[in-house]
Predict the 3D structure of the following.
Amino acid sequence: MKVGHTILWRRDIRQFCSHPTDLLARLSLYLLPESSPAFAPLVKPLLTPRAIPESLVVILLDWIEPWRWVRQLRDWIRFLRSVTSELSEEAQESAESVMTDWQQRRRGRPPNDFSGTASSTDSNVVIPLSQGEWDEPLGLPLCVVCHRADKIDTLETQQSWGEEDFDFVLQFLRTILMKHGSSLIYTSVSVPNSLPILIHSSLGIQSLLKKQTFKHNVIDRDKILIPPNWDSWGKILVLREGFDVEAVSSGWSNDIHQPQTSENVGDSETANRAASDDAKSPVGKDKVLPLYEETIRDPRKDRESSNPNSSKLDLVQAPSMQAFLTTQMEIMERLKKEEEEAAAAAQEKEKASRATTAGDGNLTQTSRYFDNLQQSDAISDQIGPVQFNMGGIQVDADDMLKRLKNREGSAAADKSRSETQTPSSQTPTKAGGDQKAQNEQLANFFSSLMKKDRSSSPYYARKSDDDR
């Protein structure tokens, strides 16, 4: 569980000059995804006695679900109260001093006068607080931003919202935010707004070259702007009669003083269950949350009441951010492991393929050699014995060579028998040596004839050409 952080630089730009010249402020933004009590230990170290006078809390609400606004505000207020109540004594004294300064800002203290009409005659005049104003200071200045106000038209066309619904939401927000001295602004992406000026003014950031001011707006329903220390019960009642501002103000104090539990925050199903518990509690009549949620109803509840069997099919429960990130981390780890296993399997397959290719090559060469031998034997069988004409007599060369070899073998056998019988006579006779020489000459002669005859054959001539 982490706190997001980013830094913004506020610079002053001279007239007729496109380059920034003066650095007015360095803004450190700490972002919390939800009002879970688990974030409290991460926020407390940020609220030091030195940082509190220069801090501002901004709560972001979404026009996609305006029926959850009061519950979300209640959870955030309880979260802030739990954090500030456990600060050090020095930090709490700094927070009290900051709240005192904020309560007196509308009394003409320059340069933080939002109206820009401060005068020296009334700078020390102490104006008493109006009813319901600054009843529940938080120790930190507060600004509530309702963004995506362009969805207002969608609520009017698809959810059948009327002007009385929009007025009720605005009156409700203004009444409960008065108790904390908070400002309120509606913003949208497509329409320019005064949010930067409001935040800079709340932090005491003023341009040295051009004074930027803003004015309250309670007429345009998508451009509402309520500066701090401006609103009152009388101004709220002017918007529409019949709104019980006093009951809402007192009931809100009962809501925010209830201890925050895990059931107060979370997904929409938990919020619906908590809403049912609030309505059934014995002190429910002293709370304003059931009043708001009964007036600004969740359309999903209406669908459930009209068709209970389809509620489970239509309702999609979104997990918390930490649960979602944990699930995504597990998926990423699993995909990474699968990719590594696939890469290893591909490498093993490639090695096996190379080994198989090498083995097939050796087998191919061996089989080719034996095929050639078989082919040579088959050709010899088809050609038959080599014959030639010698003095008018047809002589078979192969048969002649065989006879000569047999003759040599018989001569060698006779020689060995004679040597065995007379071992002393080991020197061959001249006649035997001459006979052996004649046999060798005849064998060489017939071999040369066979070679010559085969070379002149058309098959061997063609085979030799193919070899070349």
